[in-house]
Amino acid sequence: MRSKYRLGIDAGGTFTDFVLAEQAGGNRLYKALSTPADPTIAIRNGLSLIAEDLDVPLDEIIPNCDLCINGTTVGLNALIQHKGARTGLICTAGHEDSIEIRNGHKEDGYRYDADYPPAVMLVPRNLRKGVRERVLSNGEVRTPLTEDDVRAACEHFLKEGVESVAISFVWSVLHPEHERRAGEIVREMMPDAILTLGSTLYPQVREYTRTSTAVTNAYLAPTLKKYVGAVDAYFRSLGAKHPVRYFQSNGGLAIGEAMTDRSVYAINSGPASAPLAGLHVSAPFDETNVITIDMGGTSFDITLTHEGVTNLNKNIDFLRYRIGVPMIQVETLGAGGGSIGWIDEMGLLQVGPQSAGSDPGPACYGQGGTEPTTTDVNLVLGYLNPDGLVGGRLPLDPEKAETAIRTKVAEPLGISLEKAAYGMFTIVNANMVNGIRRVSIERGYDPRDFVLVCAGGATGAHITALAREMGITRIIVPKLASGLCAFGQIISDVKYNYMATCPVRLDNEDAYRRVNTLFRDLEAEGQAHLKADGFGDDQIRIKRSLDMRYVGQVHECTVEVDNFEIGAETVERLKDAFHRRHEQLYTYAEPNNTVEIVNIESTLYGLVAKPGDKALAKGGNVDTSLKGTRQAIFSADGKRRRVPVHDGARLGAGDVVTGPAIIEETTTTIVIEPGWRAELHESESYVVTRG
Question: Going by DSSP bridges, is the β-strand pair 474-478/451-455 parallel, antiparallel, or unpaired?
């Protein structure tokens, strides 16, 4: 760290988390209620908490921040709620409906469901305009661009109040000049509109994926531009000396200008920092197989890291929209502290995916909510402190929680309040366990080979129950659990992905030269970008990957390779890497078959100095941490038992708490079920084990 502080901000659906790292070592965690209508209000409120805690004015803190990093759900919320910009699409004539045809089928899991409704189109039919032009699959121009068609489309867009325009032509990745000229016309006639070129944003084959990605980017760009502009201006007003960085879905940071141009990279940026944070807190225990779970107020996010590597998704359907650019693989469920319990038409108890969010929030918040939520359940079960959350700043009302569960669940089902509460607890846990199975068992991983890392403010109350169901015997719960994604941001590097289409067979010198030239051009562009951002040569790292397949295959697989010049002597290294990857994915390889490249990608990192760690002082007397006892429920019979409650702030390194017990940290509560024990490590993480 070059400066005194580094600040990470993670805007969630219910809380916005703030982690302030200090140059001398150590981290401070703060939480403020999110303000979805204007997320900058939550940022102001959180910064006020920091200034109050440090007793230092903000205009002295922010100028001394190395990086101010913001992970935002603004793009995600706009896509979920369909509140993006009014968007127009200019495409090759005859391809106006490609985003609606969607490769001829519905998403996996619903392909044969005749009743599954079609996705809401981000660009309505009357705003999709085809223009006469045609490029062939070899890059030759068959029909020149008809510029009058582009001008007519712009005139129509102006009348319809279009704010953002996407341009995506067939085979534009091999001949982008048509898109570029159409873009010049749009900028000339619609100077206030935001423009997205498919061949620039996602320069890889597959027209539907490229068009859908460009449309999604254009749909979100005005929202991100407004948000980034407001946040940047606010930090500048406080004297920020360094640009605000924004976390991307690919697991890296970018400046605000890049986020506006590449808004699609912000869609799922919030939980994308969790894998890096999970690896960081697991490092002192030599754990590289990590499942990180983050239960917040609205959602439950799961990421899996195997042998230190977290999977990236490309060309997937996200919220029913095909996205081509790389995204950290995150499984997201509607299971959070605000998830609502309800009874379906068959009289069965369900929990979620509906959420009370932060407004009105759970019934126990006393803000007008009347529906029973997971937070209300945890309060009734005795897990949460009735004096309130976040160190008492968010008081809880046990009576309102009991009333909501009794009237909406217990009485309709004819069971006791306690059994109803534990029933909801069991169901939401089952939903989360199913999600963990999807990222582990269903992808060939045994969850018992992994350590479970706790993130999110609500996860601690469920963590031992989830591990018990999965057969996982080791859990890591950092004291920063409720702000772990914000912490992941401040230890992340700047990261940009540069892609190109390169359809060649690996059997001739011309192909080798073409691949080498494309890699060099991409990396030169990325290095120039990073150097303009203040990174020196010694701070820049490059990773290469290629999408490859056997000749005749329809789909390709991604192969990561070292940075070497491809030639007659080295091409076998590339082919061998592909054969191994193909066998790993599909259990077989065809080493005698011809191999071809479809796409290439260079990922460039600007390495950021990491904040230092501070060792926790040794403990020695666990009894000094006792705050008292509380009646809690740990079984379906609804019977209460008195358990000790420990103040986490009074525990030191080496202290052991044996379950059943409850550990209260300022921003999270950790429930230690019977049969489990928690030992606090000097790295400020609890290691929770069975037995």
Answer: parallel
SS (H, E, C) 167-179: EECCCCCCCCHHH
Polymer length of the chain? 691
pLDDT at site 1: 54
CATH 3.30.420.40, domain 5-78+226-270, yes or no: yes
Rounded distance between C-alpha atoms, residue 687 and residue 681, angstroms: 7
Residues 6+ apart with CB under 8 A from 72: 11, 39, 227, 246, 247, 266, 269, 270
- Give the integer Cα–Cα distance in Å for 147 and 144: 9
SS3 (DSSP) at 426: helix
Strand partners, 420: none
CATH topology of domain 83-217: Dna Topoisomerase Vi A Subunit; Chain: A, domain 2 (3.40.1360)
Q: Is 142 exposed, middle or buried (0-12, 13-18, 19+ CB in 10 A)?
A: exposed
Domain boundaries, the chain: 5-78+226-270, 83-217, 271-335+429-490, 339-420, 494-606, 622-690
Residue 391 has a pLDDT of 66
pLDDT reported for residue 16 = 86
Nearest CA-CA partner of 215 in 107, 76, 71, 85: 85
**Do 5-78+226-270 and 271-335+429-490 share a fold?**
yes
DSSP letters along 498-556, please? EEEEEEEESSSHHHHHHHHHHHHHHHHHHHHHHHHTT--GGGEEEEEEEEEEETT-S--
Please calculate the CA angle 149-152-154 and round it to the nearest 5 degrees: 110
CATH 3.40.50, applies to 494-606? no
Question: 196: closest CA among 139, 265, 149, 132?
Answer: 265
Q: What is the pLDDT of residues 301-328, one digit of tens each?
A: 899 999 998 888 888 888 889 999 888 8
Token pair listed for 388: 């309130």
Q: Which of 151, 157, 156 is nearest to 188 (CA)?
A: 151
pLDDT, one tens digit per residue, over 42-81 is 889 999 999 999 898 888 888 888 777 887 777 877 887 7
Joined together, the tokens standing for residue 156 give 């129509």
CATH number of 271-335+429-490: 3.30.420.40
Residues of the chain short of pLDDT 70, as ranges, are 1-2, 13, 358, 390-392
| Runs of H (alpha helix) within 117-189 | 147-160, 177-189
- Evaluated on CA atoms 258, 259, 264, 266, the torsion sign reads positive
Least Cα distance to 193 among 155, 158, 235 occurs for: 158
Site of tokens 């054969």? 579
